[in-house]
Amino acid sequence: MPSEKVEIFGSFRTGLYLPSSDIDMVIFGEWKSIPLNTLSQALENNGISKRDIIVISNATVPIIRLLHSPSSIRVDISFNMDNGVKSAKLIKKLIKEHPSLPKLVLVLKQFLVHRDLNEVYNGGMSSYCLTLLIVSFLQGHHRPKCDPSVNLGTLLLEFFEHYGINFNYEKVSIHFQEDCLYKPRFRKGNFLSVEDPLVEGHDVAKGTYLMHLLKRSFQNSFHMLSKVVHESACSQIPVKSFLHLILKVDPDVMKQRELTLNNHSKIMKTLSRLMGQSDRIFSEGTAAKKKKIR
After folding, report:
1. Element (DSSP H or E) covering residue 17
2. Element holding 169 (H helix, E strand)
3. Residue 48 CB: number of other CB atoms within 10 A?
């Protein structure tokens, strides 16, 4: 039996994806070297246009990036990296524990996207780090438990207050052991520090060097929303939503959303085909090697 296995991870697996999100896949197997070119050629042979395939071999985590042209959805394929799969399983567990988590994550992910602070390689914050930030906030939230759909606005406002004003970035690190939420920082500096609950000593916020901009955005959003909520309460004029004050959705995102909805069945078929192709490609490779040995 072939040992290769293909799995989906990231926001597509957890359900916490935006219209602009990528799909992340990982292939597990045993090779002398990562078969980037083998898979790239096989994908091309199976109908994926060469111009839609990019092999990124010099990155810390080598990947193949391909584009699904009908939907403009990008797919990243990595090899033998199990941390993404483990993280996705953890997040799905946390979603069960915190019913308000998915909606807060989606709103705050778009909040970061709108401010170009959602990419770690640009100093922004990863989705995984953001999710852990929200979980830490919810774990320390001492309001009586009630219907999360009724209190999402309050939770969002208090999240902004917590990380925009109250949180002491210089002295504490976010921690996920049962006996405490925070502990003294394990790296120097005044940036955010979040210990990975899956890897002891790993700081998932290490690359977020623009945390000062994020903090300022959280702070400004808290003051802005607090002001308009107070004014609305005083005027007694009902308002459906204040989110437009802090969130802007680019027309291209709405176009992408519509495209994704219209092509959902095609996307799922393509994804299934890609996973099947990857399995078949490496299964055939394994069989050929065994035959050659015999």
Report:
1. none
2. none
3. 21
pLDDT value of residue 294 = 47
Give the whole-angstrom CA distance, residue 250 versus residue 168. Answer: 33
In this structure, the strands spanning 53-56 and 23-28 are: unpaired
Compute how many other C-beta atoms are within 10 angstroms of the C-beta atom of residue 42. 18
Q: Which two tokens stand for residue 271?
A: 């994804």
The b-or-e profile of 89-125 (16+ CB within 10 A means b, else e) is ebbeebbeebebbbebbebbbbbbbbeebbebeebbb
Encoded tokens for 113: 């996207």
Q: Is the separation of the CB atoms in 122 and 116 below 8 Å?
A: yes
pLDDT, tens only, 6-59 = 899 999 899 998 888 888 999 998 888 889 998 899 888 877 888 999 999 887
**Are 195 and 202 spatial neighbours (Cβ–Cβ below 8 Å)?**
yes
Q: How distant, in Å, are the alpha carbons of 66, 138, 173, 195 from that of 180?
A: 42, 13, 11, 12
pLDDT for 1: 35
- Decide if 52 contacts 74 (C-beta within 8 A): no
DSSP bridge partners of 60: none
pLDDT tens-digit readout, 138-167: 988 766 555 555 578 889 999 999 999 999
Q: Which of 218, 251, 245 is nearest to 19 (CA)?
A: 251
- Single pTM value for the model: 0.81
Alpha-carbon gap, residue 38 to 193, rounded angstroms: 39
Q: Which H or E element spans position 51?
A: none
pLDDT band at 3 (very low <50, low <70, confident <90, very high): low
Using CB atoms within 10 A of its CB, is residue 51 exposed (0-12), middle (13-18) or buried (19+)?
exposed
241: left (phi over 0), alpha (psi -120 to 50) or beta: beta
